[in-house]
Amino acid sequence: MTSGTTEVDVIIIGAGSAGLSAAKELTNQGLNYTIVEGSHRIGGRAYSEEIAPDVWFDLGCSYLHSAEHNPFVAIADDLGVVLGKEYGNFFDGDQQRFYHNRVQLNDADAAACREYFEQCNKAIDNAAKRGEDIAVSDTLDLDSPYAKTFMAHLAELCGGDIDELSTVDLERWVGGSDYPVLNGFGNLIAKWGGDVSVSLNTKVESIDWSAAGVRVETNKGTLTGRAVLITVSTGVLAANHIKFKPGLPDWKSDAIHGLPQGTESKIAVHFNEDVFGPDGRGYHHTWTDDDEGSSFEASLMGQNVAIINTGGRFGIWLEKQGQQAGHDFALEQIANVFGNDIRQSASRSIVTAWYTDPWTLGSYSHALPGQAHQREVLARSIDDQVFFAGEATHIDFGCAIHGAYLSGIRAAQEIKAMLK
Ligand SMILES: Cc1cc2nc3c(=O)[nH]c(=O)nc-3n(C[C@H](O)[C@H](O)[C@H](O)COP(=O)(O)OP(=O)(O)OC[C@H]3O[C@@H](n4cnc5c(N)ncnc54)[C@H](O)[C@@H]3O)c2cc1C
Predict the structure, then answer these.
(1) Residues 245 and 371 placed together within one structural domain of the fold
(2) Residue 365 confidence (pLDDT) above 80
(3) Closest Cα to residue 185, out of 1, 80, 60, 75?
(4) Residue 360 Cα, ligand 1 centroid: separation in angstroms?
(5) Which atom of ligand 1 is nearest to the CA of 389?
(6) Residue 27, domain extent
(7) What's the 329 CA to ligand 1 centre distance in angstroms?
(8) C-alpha dist (Å) from residue 188 to 72, 131, 216, 334, 417
(9) Number of domains in the chain
């Protein structure tokens, strides 16, 4: 790590997708930088673990969403990384199945449930198009028998509950195909970012921008630069894990707090045999009169794995109960669809804990009602010294990894223009 006396053009904080794309773009622009990462690895919220031999589970991002607009499609192709392009319509409405009180909805009820999901999405979009940046909960018919499963689904997609989500922020999402990565999205990011020289285990403690240039204090010493680029999550910023001297202006703090980190929790369960059967592969929504419900992917790419998703306040509560509670909940959800016999074949599970992970303090950002404009504000630099990137700063792809990637390039180009 460059420390003390050597001044670089840019100090980049965080080696997730945004920090890594910024580093590559700065190199293209002929600028030098130091990139520091607090944890022991690059990738941030892109991280894969092998749950069984040759079966990879992505604890963070797993899909190249909006694939037709996603720069990681070309990156994966260039690196020879196999994408599950044939599974890109996995989430389409007609692919989804619904189970209430352990019984699959019949065709008529499933059609009514899909219709309700459509109506909800339209109500959110219509409010946003009228310019009403209000809570999603204010737009929905919550008396529907399908409201519970829709709410659980939205909480795991967006990380927040319906009263916490902004209509305008949701409406901006650009749809399209969703490609999984056969051997792990986290592994793809580690491969793509592997040529960037990162100082790992280097935690930034404070940033002094009181004079020209910046002084960044880390657990390994002081760095000086002409500008600093911050890519840590809004959760880390809101928790004041990095101290600013002088403090951040109010408009920037408001943007950080208007875009909190939501929580999506995932629990992967591997089975030592095919418990799903040839027709079981798919995306299932399950809820009972007594539980919160969840949605889960069964055997997406033909493997003996189910991935259960929860989110919002329930996801946080479940994470706080610990690993065993997460495992038990996941098995219960799978058993609700495939029957109790599956329990004997469960060989291993991995339970995520993003809400308490000190390097993220949540899964990804969502705008609070009335705060959708804050993504643009969060992206603005302060006094041509302190620059911001990361998923929360992207307007159309906020919360997604390709939004983080694009934001890193945007910030690097802004810094280049400023230093010129
Ligand atoms: C459960 C889950 C599912 C998801 N699913 C998808 C998906 O399917 N598709 C999709 O597109 N996106 C998905 N996402 C979102 C996606 O993973 C993120 O948007 C993206 O990875 C964020 O990249 P980033 O560079 O903005 O932030 P990060 O990846 O968080 O990078 C910031 C880095 O800063 C480091 N850091 C923090 N504090 C300090 C400090 N004080 N000093 C030094 N370093 C520090 C962190 O360790 C981290 O490595 C998912 C995320 C989660 C958690």
Answers:
(1) yes
(2) yes
(3) 60
(4) 7
(5) 26
(6) 7-42+196-260+365-419
(7) 25
(8) 9, 38, 30, 29, 31
(9) 2
